[in-house]
Write a sequence for this structure.
């Protein structure tokens, strides 16, 4: 037995208890979870959920939407894609979910001070981690502006929650709600510069943010990827690094999911 | 000191228990060391190592299948020099008594020889697992794996054995017409034993895009879905050769590990189960004695010898 590697005090895997679950938009669910693990959670990290079905071997990585340390509760918001997430969506209050986490690095909010300005950019199911980000930034006295884009009005989520912490601009691809267009339609009109930029969304949106804020000292992208282990061992979710040799890489699960703009190949 | 019921003895590998995380599913151990004391394990099969650093295949690299998964990582690794200067010393420093099995991959017999020679010099590397059967890279043999052609397998194994300072166990692919002909070629080339099975090959499509989910177009299939295939092939090789077998393919429980030993395996690799549960290996080790009691197995070394004796009569 090596004394240096006795189990750390931190909880790494826990059966979290479902406090509540509800559908907040078609096929999009909000699940509130309770457990010790909440104490270790940081903004922008994710949970790696086991689907309660023995034939489903791979866990589902889902970002943390809200953290309530006082009540040991965390909220996740996810979209039902196929059979695994469909099973998760059927779980009820009181059920347990085998959860690894919190995983990944998360958003660095320490770069901002009271009175500074933050721009939060989210697309579709990439919006959830921005809620806790906005909440914690507002609590620090940072001025928060969120720009969130969706395919259409049916996919709209979390607008009201984000409004609690600052201005919110909503875009839809088809113009069925808010401003017709993409997040870029709004951001390209801004005549102010954010002191930090936090973004999460589909690859196309992240490419825009990466290019727009390529040289910004505090602009961050939160990436999604297909994962297996979710903790750095299997190399399923790697990305190439910009301006480095061909074999240089980072793992979205362990080195990310948050990367600085201009650092990875999207 | 009481006898360790779980100990198994293979050439080069005196293992305190038969459970070994399988190569590719455990990195170089560092990540799992956050979860538990790696000294609990029988050994570790570290990630496949090549001469030069490799990024591997494009992403997505994994997809789920019923009771299984597909992967096409493509032998991503930092290269043998980094493994020797960083990965193996870290394991030696933190777990000095843990025997390591180094998975060696390559694209030529020269590369197999070079990497085997170098990596076998590391003090904690007690055996090589020669990877002649990765389905996710092109070996330049008209699409065939080295492990699918007895003559190619013979030459690659010979190159490794002649240069390695430690015993060489050769990883066999299930994707062959007659696994015994490859096994015999591998044995004639001087291998110490076999590890088997490498992944089967499969694919899945995305209904929306009509494209394969995995960027590589296909991947290696693993998990409990392949367990019966592994058992059948292990028994087939055990009947054809006396060399020891480290069995793997879908083991996710103490029962499955013992079943594989009854098929003819002397030790057990655990792969995909680590992804479902990071504590899969220590959980299996902890449960082995209870399951052994249930089925009247006094100790694993006796079981292993009984199975071998039984095979001789067949």
């Amino acid at each position: 037995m090596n004394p240096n590697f006795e189990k750390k005090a931190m909880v790494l895997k826990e059966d979290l208890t479902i406090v509540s679950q509800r559908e907040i938009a078609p096929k999009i669910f909000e699940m509130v979870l309770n457990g010790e693990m909440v104490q270790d959670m940081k903004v922008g990290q994710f949970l790696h959920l086991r689907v309660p079905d023995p034939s489903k071997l791979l866990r589902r990585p889902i970002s943390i939407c809200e953290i309530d340390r006082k009540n040991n509760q965390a909220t996740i918001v996810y979209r039902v894609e196929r059979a695994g997430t469909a099973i998760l969506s059927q779980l009820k209050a009181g059920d347990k979910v085998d959860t690894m986490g919190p995983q990944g690095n998360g958003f660095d909010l320490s770069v901002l001070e009271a009175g500074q300005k933050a721009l939060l950019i989210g697309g579709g199911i990439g919006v959830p981690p921005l809620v806790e980000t906005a909440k914690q930034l507002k609590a620090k006295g940072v001025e928060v502006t969120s720009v969130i884009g969706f395919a259409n009005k049916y996919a709209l989520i979390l607008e009201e929650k984000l409004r609690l912490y600052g201005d919110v601009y909503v875009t839809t691809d088809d113009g069925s709600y808010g401003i017709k267009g993409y997040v870029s339609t709004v951001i390209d009109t801004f005549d102010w510069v954010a002191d930090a930029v936090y973004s999460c969304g589909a690859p196309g949106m992240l490419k825009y943010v990466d290019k727009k804020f390529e040289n910004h000292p505090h602009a961050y992208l939160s990436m999604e990827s297909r994962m297996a282990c979710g903790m750095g061992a299997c190399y399923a979710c790697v990305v190439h690094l910009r301006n480095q040799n061909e074999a240089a890489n980072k793992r979205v699960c362990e080195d990310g999911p948050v990367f600085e703009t201009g650092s990875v190949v999207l | 000191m009481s006898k360790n019921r779980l100990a198994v003895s293979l050439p080069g590998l005196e293992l305190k228990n038969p459970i070994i995380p399988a190569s590719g599913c455990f990195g170089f151990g560092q990540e799992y060391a956050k979860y538990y004391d790696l000294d609990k394990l029988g050994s570790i099969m570290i990630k496949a190592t090549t001469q030069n650093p490799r990024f591997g295949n494009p992403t997505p690299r994994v997809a789920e299948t019923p009771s299984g998964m597909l992967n096409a990582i493509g032998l991503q690794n930092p290269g043998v020099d980094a493994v020797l200067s960083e990965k193996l010393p870290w394991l030696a420093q933190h777990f000095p008594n843990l025997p390591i099995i180094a998975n060696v991959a390559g694209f030529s017999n020269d590369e197999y020889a070079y990497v085997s020679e170098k990596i076998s010099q590391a003090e904690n590397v007690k055996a090589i697992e020669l990877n002649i059967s990765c389905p996710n890279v092109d070996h330049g043999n008209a699409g065939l794996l080295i492990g699918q052609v007895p003559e190619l397998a013979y030459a690659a194994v010979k190159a490794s054995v002649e240069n390695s300072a430690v015993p060489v166990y050769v990883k066999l692919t299930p994707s062959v017409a007659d696994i015994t002909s490859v096994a015999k070629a591998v044995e004639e080339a001087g291998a110490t034993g076999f590890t088997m099975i490498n992944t089967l090959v499969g694919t899945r499509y995305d209904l929306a895009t009509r494209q394969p989910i995995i960027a590589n177009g296909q991947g290696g299939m693993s998990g409990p879905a392949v367990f019966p295939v592994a058992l059948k092939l292990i028994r087939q090789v055990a009947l054809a050769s006396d060399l020891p077998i480290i069995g793997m393919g879908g083991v996710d429980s103490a029962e499955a590990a013992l079943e594989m030993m009854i098929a003819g395996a002397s030790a057990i690799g655990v792969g995909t189960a680590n992804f479902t549960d990071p504590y899969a290996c220590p959980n299996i080790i902890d449960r082995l004695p209870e399951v052994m009691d249930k089925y009247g197995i006094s100790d694993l070394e006796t079981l292993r010898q009984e199975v071998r004796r039984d095979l001789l009569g067949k």
In short: Helices of chain A lie at 83-89, 128-139, 159-163, 183-187, 203-212. Chain A has two domains: 12-103, 117-224.
